[in-house]
Amino acid sequence: MATASSNCSPTLVLLNGKVVADDGIHAAVAIAGQRITALGTSAEIAALATTDTEIIDLAGRTVVAGFVDGHAHMDREGLKSTLPSLSGCRSIEDIVDKIAAIAATKKPGEWIVTMPIGEPPSYEDVVSGIAEGRFPDRWDLDRAAPDNPVYIRSIWGYWRSTLPLVSIANSAALKLAGIDAATVAPTGSIEICRDDATGEPNGIFIETNKMPVVELSLMRQAPHFSPAERVTALAASMQAYNRAGTTSVFEGHGVASEVLDAYRDVRATGRQTVRAAMIFSPAWGSTSPEDCRALLKSWGHWLAGRGLGDQWLAMSGLYGEIDNSVERELRSAAFPQTGWAGFHYNSSLPRDALKTVLVEAARNGIRAVGILPNMLDLFAEVDDIAPISDQRWVLGHIVSLTPDQVKQVAGLGLAVTTHLSAYLYKRGSELVEKLGRERAGEIVPLRALRDAGVPISFGSDNVPLSLFHSIAHAVNRRDRLGALIAPEQALTREEALECAALGGAALTFEEAEKGSITVGKLADLAVLSADPLSCAAEMVSQIGSELTVVDGRIVHRQL
C-alpha cells in the first residue's frame, strides 16, 4: 500500500474500483482533507477508515485524475441557457409562436433577445431545417412581438465551424439601432439584407466572421449579458464541466474583466467547483508598439511567473494575437462588453506592436499564449532577442505542424494545447485535401509532439465541453466523415488520458500538485460511467463522470 505520512484519518475513501494511478492500477484510494493519502487494496484502505470517514463502494467503476481543460472557455456553457432557446422550431410560424409567447411575458418596449435559430450545440444546416426554406425577416418578427424590439443572435461561429453567421432584428430593434435604408455596412464582411422593392433593411444580417461583429457594432443597442447573468451562468458552467470529469481549466485565450468579475463572485460565494488558471486578456488602448511596450512595462510585473492567486483562482501571463483588421476595431468598440467571447478583442495587435510587447514580456518573465499558426514564427523571433525556452510559453489550437516546426516548438520550450474536435474531427478530410495525403501526418501531430518531449494538453474550446471527445479523437483519429486521419499520429488510451490531465497541469507548472492520482497530490479525481481503457472505441466520447471530487470534496454525484 502506498501512503503519505499524515496525522489525519481519511475523510473519504473509494473502495472496490479500478483506480488508474501514477504507479499502476489500485482497487481503492483514501483522501484526507485536500490530498490523496493512500492507494492500495480495498481491505487496506477500508482499514484506514473511521466512523467519520465517508465510504463509497465503486462497484468496479474506474477512477481517473480530474481533467484539466487546456482551452476551456468555460463561462460560455452556462450562457447558452441564459437566453430563450429557439430549439425545436421547424418553421417560421414556429419561431413566430415561440417569440410571441416570450413577448407575452414582457412589458411593451422590453427587449427580447434569443439564442440563434437551429439546433444546439452546433446549429448545422439551419435553413434546410426551416419548412419555408428561408430565415424569418423583420416583418415576421413584428407579427410575433409588435410592441417589443426583437433580436435573434447569431451563433458563435466556432460552434459550427462553417460560415456565414446570421442574426435577425425586427422593426423596433432596427429603429432603436438607427438602421434604415441609408445605413451602410461597416465592413465588407457584413451584409445588411434588403427588400428588393424598397431597399429597406429586411432585418437579416449575414456575416462572414466566426467571431460575430454585427451584435457588437450595428446591433450594439441590444442587451448584452449582465454581470448577474454571467455569475449565474459561470456557476452552472462549472457543474457541467464537473459532470464531464473536468476539475480544472486553463483559459489560454485570456479572460475579459467581466468574466474575471464573475469568477471572483462565484469564488467569494462558495460556488466554485472547478479550479481556474487564467491568462490576462489586455484591452490595449493603442496599437502603437511603444505605447503598448510602455504600458506593459509600467503595470505588467504582476503577470510574471505564476502571477497572482492560488490553486483555485489564478491569473498570470499574457494573451497575444496578430490582428489589425476593421473587424477588430468594430468588436473592440463595444468594450467592455465581449458577447460570447469572454476575452477582450483589443488584446490583438498589429504584428510589429505585438512583437515589441512580447519581447518586453520575455525580458520580464511574463509567459505568453498564442493560438494562431502565425504565432510560432513570432515566438521564434522573440526568442532570438530575449530567450523564452525556460518560460514554457503556450501555443494553442494546433492545426498542422511540419516536422521542422515540431522541432521548433520543442526547441522553444513551448507547451501546446490541441483542439481535436475542430481540426481533426470536423476538418480532418478538408485538411488532408488542402495539405495533400502525403502530408496528412502533419495534422495535429500528437505522436510527433510527444516523441519530441513537448507537453501536450487537450482543449475543448467548449465545442463540446467534454474532454472525452478529445481523448476519443486522439486515439481513433477519425473525422466526422469516418475517414482515418494519419493513424501513425494516434496516442494510446493511457497517453490520451495523461494529456487530458497531467498535460493540462503542465500549462501552469502544477504537475507536482495535480494531473495524476498520486499519494500527496491534490484530491481531484473522477469516477467514470465506463472504463476508457477497455470500452469500445466508439464509446469513449460518451463517457461521463458519475462522481467528481475536487480538493477532496464531492462536487458532482450521480451514483
UniProtKB/TrEMBL annotation:
GO molecular function terms listed in the Swiss-Prot or TrEMBL record: hydrolase activity, acting on carbon-nitrogen (but not peptide) bonds
Residue ranges constituting the Amidohydrolase domain according to the UniProt record: 54-556
Pfam families: Amidohydro_3 (PF07969)
PANTHER family the UniProt entry points to: IMIDAZOLONEPROPIONASE, PROTEIN LONG AFTER FAR-RED 3
Protein's name in the database: Amidohydrolase 3 domain-containing protein
Annotated source species: Aminobacter carboxidus
